Amino acid sequence: MSGKTQGLIGSRVPKIDAWEKVTGTARYGHDITLPGMLHARILRSAHPHARLLAIDTRAARRVPGVKVVLTGDGVTCANLGLMQDHPPLKSGKVRSIRDEIAAVAATSEEAAEEACRLIKVQYEPLPAVFDPLEAMKRGAPRIHDKVKGNLLSFNYRFSSGDVDSALSRSAHVVEGTYTTRFVTHACMEPCFALASWDPQGRLLLHSTTQIPYLLQGHMAKVLGIPGSAIRIKQPVIGGAFGSKLDTYPYEVITALLAREAGRPVRLLYSREEEFVCSPTRQPMIIKMATGCDADGKLTARRCEVILDNGAYTSWGITTPHIMLLGITSLYRVENVLLTAQSVYTNNPTSGAFRGYGNPQGTFANEQQMEALAHKAGIDPVEFRLLNCNQPHSVTPQKFRITTCALRECIETCRDSIDFKAPKEGLEGVGMASMFHVAGGGRVYKSDGCGVIAKLDDFARLTLMTGATEIGTGSDTAMAMIAAEELGLPVENVSVINNDTDVGPWDVGIHASRTTFIAGNATILAARDIKAQLAPHAAEKLGCTEEELEWFGGAIRVTGDHDRSIPIDKVVRSLHFREQGKMVVGKGFYDPPNEFQARDMTGNVSSTYAFATHACRVRVDPETGRITVLKFVAAHDVGRVINPLGLDGQIEGAIAQGLGMALTEQVRLDQGRMQNTSFLDYKLLMARDMPRDIELHYIETNDPEGPYGAKGVSEAGIIPIPAAIANAVADAIRVRIHDLPLTPERVLEAIKSKP
Amino acid sequence: MRVEITLTVNGDPYSVHVEPNRTLLDVLRDDLGLTGTNRGCNQGDCGACTVLVDGKAMNACLVLAPDADGAQITTIEGLATGGRLHPIQQAFIDEGAVQCGYCTPGMIMTAAALLAAHPDPTEEQIRNGIEGNLCRCTGYESIVRAVRAAGRKP
Fold first, then answer.
1. Neighboring chain A residues of B96 at a CB cutoff of 8 Å
2. How many CA atoms lie within 13 A of A490 on its CB side?
3. Model confidence over A334-345: pLDDT tens digits?
4. What is the pLDDT of residue A2?
5. Rounded mean pLDDT of chain A?
6. Is A305 contained in some domain?
């Protein structure tokens, strides 16, 4: 049933929700109110580690307008998190300064806040530990009573070949320790939840979650009610980047308050709370050694990673799955030994953040590639080309690489940045590549997504799906794909993707998976519709089904366009007849990828993305300030679905990656965040961006991707800290192993030069 | 102790009684139901709540409501005229300058004020002009392109 389509794929299509966002009609969480709604506030710990001796809520309860005050002892609910170590409201003990001790629902935010101020908590402060290396030592304060040495049982080990002997036989070896700090998502919209219970005891939770169906399941478990008694709705989401990949105490607390009050309850974070209480990117200590032979072929790599887990365990504990894949599989290296250990501390809980550990891992990996090339006396670009992955190869972790344009990405950047051009003052050039999942990432028992497509009597196509849109334009990609399949204008397509009562299941928006997975599910649903319409259209047009093509809102005969029938007419002819039927297509796509086994092998994604970034920087020798003069990004994207959306994903990732490389860090003092405003936590502004940014897309037409596309949303951030660090090392002739590359650190490095 | 203030918002007259410590942002969102203006930080650091006060782009979270008494306010809801989008709104759509969209209304109001002052701004004027508006999604590149495109239109 192939035929001419509308040529939408690859064309610049504005986001289908852009009009409501430019007119102020988009409804975000804080725009939603319900009749009788109360306002919630949460009281958090004054200490990073303490026993809770007593909580006195009497004065708080007397504040006019206060309806409910909850404490950990007053509620019965299960713990959250992959290790089930996280009580939504703490009792007995607090383990970080964001720990929730009490919550209030009141008729106004002011009353709720006043009540929180009046809650008296008696603490017995305990010795605390904020450094994962300290936390691992014998005699360190124990954060969870049952966890010895603060070591999470979730640890990772991958081994292939004989690393020790391969390293000892290597012609050149570089070793180093690289550290990355806490970085936070800083979504423009602070966190929000709105809960209400109907008289039958069913919970409606409005949340900006990235995982509506997992949230439904988590809430059921935590609250001890059936999942069928929970409905999740998502308003328009004002940024996520991985920060909403868990179920959080505030969501449970809001539901508990609403149940207790018998009224809807809404919680809005302040900006300060957003900074203090949101998840962060895992800080890592990465100890790495890499060797090569005299010809520059990689021989072995050893890598030990310590991750600061913070006080509780989020979904982010699975980060090493993704972080390690870049370390083992960006370049070909046979002998590999990797370990990753997460450690509890009294710091804020780490979570998931765009790139999922891969930017940290690549920071070490690609700096080491550069250093090893220099040591071996080989041009670093040539060194990468010599070792780069090839299409149709299998890596030691058993990742099956199908399409792969890493070579082309490296060459594109080499040609664009001109590594040999003369430099003025402290100028430097640097490069880094990356390897990432691009066809889903199986970290849950299903990596699938469902789509129901309804084509109505007026040729309106409605896609109902669980695939969440967080601003990336995945809903627009779905609309384009459906329109392309059915020969409809994009304007005829609606996407409803914000209600667990409506859309079929999706595991969540993560791992750059949504356009890939939901796009494939959309193709299946659209083709289901075509299969339903084709026999009738063929009959009416007097042709075979194979001769049909779908174009311009009509079904017509290939090569004989005068024989044509509007698609809605076929729908109506099926509908308005005896024993008529509706036209509803469905698709569920779960990619052919595998869970990683305990030995960390398994083809975790059904395809992989490759990219190379290169940049030219100038370092001010007086101030240590780094200016990025030119930035080039070359990406193997499989196929461009929507260049408008793709440019936005890569450009946005460049800003976030440069932030991570240059300015962003959560500054903690005894587990307490010191920079809790946008003035103190430096996001890049428009004038901080490089003036010369070049984007290149290499289309490899992946056989598993929708129209050949691969996932791209995380790929853009991953190589950036490494590329900048390499360029700075080229400029100042000293290599900096710690992020971010602040002016202070750069000056220190310059001064340390012998 | 409430005070009465009168405002003209998007051409419509309003009279509201407010606590003197409430901000223009509170009044727009809570009293007038104009929720298109987003609260991003409530500290004047992010620009998400930018509106035009007597033609000047200001963070509504930093303007005390009594200080806005008698002012002409334009919010994102009032930018389109006669059912037609303002050129900067259309340019944001066409250039892909919208992702999550939370910063968008404030960014557009800042850009509208910039365009009123400099009908065809240079790239540097744009980058400096929107320095008070943070965006976490786009990296600003598409926003700069959108303002340039809108500036070139008659």
1. 12, 14-15, 18, 644-645, 647-648
2. 19
3. 999 999 999 999
4. 38
5. 96
6. yes
User: How far is B55 from B105, CA to CA, in rounded Å?
Assistant: 15
Asked if residue A317 is part of any domain, the answer here is: yes
Residue of A12, A185, A471 lying closest to B99 (CB–CB): A471
Task: Indicate whether A119 pLDDT > 80.
Answer: yes
Q: Where does residue A601 rank: exposed (0-12), middle (13-18), buried (19+ CB within 10 A)?
A: middle
A609 and A536 part of one domain: no
Give the tens place of pLDDT for each residue, A567-588: 999 999 999 999 999 999 999 9
Whether B139 and A653 lie within 8 Å, measured CB to CB: yes
Domain containing A88: what range?
32-126+188-239+244-277
For residue B77, the chain A residues in CB contact (below 8 A) are: 23-25
Question: Is the CB of B45 inside 8 Å of chain A's CB atoms?
Answer: yes
Residue B48, chain A, CB below 8 Å: the answer is yes
What order do you get walking across the sheet with A560-566 strand by strand? A548-551, A554-557, A560-566
Q: Is residue A183 part of a domain?
A: no
Indicate the residue of A15, A271, A679 with minimum beta-carbon distance to B98.
A15
Give per-residue pLDDT as tens, B56-84. 999 999 999 999 999 999 999 999 998 89
With contact defined as beta carbons under 8 Å apart, do B31 and B16 qualify? yes
What is the per-residue pLDDT across A252-301, written as a single tens digit (0 to 9) for each? 999 999 999 999 999 999 999 999 999 899 999 999 999 999 999 999 99
Q: What is the CATH number of the domain that holds A105?
A: 3.90.1170.50
What CATH number did the domain enclosing A373 receive?
Answer: 3.30.365.10
Q: Which of A648, A218, A713, A650 is nearest to A441 (CA)?
A: A713
- Chain B interface, mutation test: which of A187, A188, A644, most B Cβ atoms within 10 Å? A188
Point out the residue among B38, B41, B124 whose CB comes nearest to the CB of A271.
B41
Chain B nearest-CA distance from A565, in A, is 32
Q: Does A167 fall in a domain?
A: no
Nearest Cβ partner of B142 from A26, A188, A651?
A651
Instruction: Judge if A608 and A722 occupy the same domain.
Output: yes
- What is the rounded distance in angstroms from the CA atom of residue A451 to the CA atom of residue A466? 7
Q: Is the Cβ of B59 closer than 8 Å to some Cβ of chain A?
A: no
| C-alpha A334: how far from chain center | 29
Assess whether A344 and A432 both reside in one domain: yes
Asked if B36 and A24 come within 8 Å (Cβ–Cβ), the reply is yes
Top pLDDT among A320 and A413 is at A413
Instruction: Mark residue A472 as left, alpha or beta (left: phi above 0; alpha: psi -120 to 50; beta: remaining).
Output: alpha
The per-residue pLDDT for range A609-647, each reduced to its tens digit, is 999 999 999 999 999 999 999 999 999 999 999 999 999
Min Cα separation B58/chain A (Å): 17
